[in-house]
Amino acid sequence: MQEHDLSYILNHLGEEDRARHRGAVAPPVYQSAIFAFDSVAAMRRGFADELDQTVYTRGNNPTVEILRKKLAALEGAEDALLFGSGAAAIAAGVLAGLRAGDHVVCVQKPYSWTRTLVRDFLARFGVAHSFVDASDVEQIEAALRENTRLVVLESPNTMTYEQQDLAAVAQLARARGIRTLVDNSYATPLNQNPLALGIDLVAHSATKYLNGHSDVLAGVLCGSKALIREVFQGPYMTLGAMLSPHDAWLMIRGLRTLPLRMRQVAETTARVIEFLKAHPKIEQIWYPHDADYPQAGLSRRQTRGASGLLSFTIRCDTTAAVERFCDALQRVLMTVSWGGYESLLFPVAVVYPPDTRVGQQRPGQVPVNLVRLSVGLEEADSLLADLAQALDRV
Ligand SMILES: *Cc1c(COP(=O)(O)O)cnc(C)c1O
After folding, report:
1. Which of 111, 133, 275, 289 has its CA 20 to 30 A from that of 105?
2. Which residues of the chain have pLDDT under 50?
3. What are the names of the required cofactors (predicted)?
């Protein structure tokens, strides 16, 4: 899969020429918007290739370029582009190949802003869509139309972690000249490489595991040189949602420990799952790397290792009990997002009025008594103790 081993990518790739920076081990932040030329001929060469030359930081910047090389290598991609958020990366990948009159097929419960992009934003520009239960490839096939240009996937997806058979979807789409994009934020490039399975574009919210420290918003899009250049000439340069050099520098630092963080998180999450399964106040658990998960076979086939994001429902009559559980947590922080060094919890009850009866969710939505837990780097024992004392309040 990879030309270089993992530690080479994380420690050296893109940083080999340290003599250029007087031996600095950590790369400098090129905090410059613009790059000057000493001749018209040199400037002309810069203009001819704003993706790979340094002209203007909206297009390329040396600090961002280090990160770009590392992320492309991690995904086994020819090239990558960094964005100021995961949402910007997904939007750029989706918008690049579409025009009025086209049709898009998308997984039925994608990340919320991916749903808004496909359902509301694209509609304003004359692009139609179908949301399908993509855990079944036949449903994707049935939704394809003459004018379908793109299939948008997210595997595992947000909140309930349904997966798509990426190789099967890629094969189906390729045969008809339809482009595929997958949001690979959950698995990370360590555990799943969709490009190797035939997917065209891979997007990540790098805000989550890749950066891993809850201090930077970033996104990345990976693909072939030709596709990345198409995205660059289109939405990347026109919308200008690039990553700042300083945030790229922080991300390079966060990325160095990705394998260590993922290993620890997978180990602790196994303990958390074991604890939740045995707890009488837990109704159902969603975790794609648990043997009891309906698509556990696909997880084993398609991914190399586990992540630390899971969901569970609490056995109760109304969301008041969920609120008591959440409010009682001492170590786990209640917030949006996931994938940080600290354990994070998101209760679905927050988008419903207080004291909503269990089962009252809107059609197609996840249960009102579901909470999502992102396991962090705390000792397993303190995390379990915190969950146990909070569950006592239910
Ligand atoms: C958070 C998230 C996004 C959006 O990423 P941002 O960095 O917040 O813009 C996209 N997809 C998934 C699965 C996410 O969890």
Report:
1. 289
2. 1
3. pyridoxal 5'-phosphate
Q: State pTM to two decimals.
A: 0.97
Domain with CATH 3.90.1150.10 in the chain: 258-391
What mean pLDDT, rounded, does the chain reach?
A: 97
Whether the CB of 205 sits within 6 Å of ligand 1: yes
Q: Give me ligand 1 centre to Cα 203, in Å.
A: 9
Fold adopted by 6-255: Aspartate Aminotransferase; domain 2 (3.40.640)
7-16 tens-digit pLDDT: 999 999 999 9
**Which pairs from 169-173 meet CB under 8 Å and 24+ separation?**
169/134, 169/137, 169/140, 169/199, 170/194, 170/197, 170/198, 170/199, 170/200, 171/198, 172/137, 172/140, 172/141, 172/144
Q: Ligand 1 within 6 A of 207 CB?
A: yes
State percent of the chain over pLDDT 90.
Answer: 97
pLDDT of 363 reads 83
Note the pLDDT of residue 1. 43
Instruction: Kindly report the protein residue whose alpha carbon is nearest to atom 8 of ligand 1.
Output: 86
> 58 near 49, Cβ under 8 Å?
no
The sign one gets for the Cα dihedral 354, 359, 362, 368 is positive
Residue nearest atom 7 of ligand 1, based on CA coordinates: 86
87 lines ligand 1 (CB under 6 A): yes
117, 154, 164, 208, best to mutate for ligand 1 pocket (most atoms within 8 Å of CB): 208
Cα 156 to ligand 1 centre (Å)? 13
Which pLDDT belongs to residue 84? 98
Q: What is the pLDDT of residue 42?
A: 98
Check if 219 has its Cβ closer than 6 Å to any atom of ligand 1.
yes
Q: Residue 52 has what pLDDT?
A: 96
> Which CATH number among 3.40.309.10, 3.40.50.2300, 3.90.1150.10, 3.20.20.70 corresponds to the domain 258-391?
3.90.1150.10
Q: DSSP label at 19?
A: G
Give start-end residues of each CATH 3.40.640.10 domain in the chain. 6-255
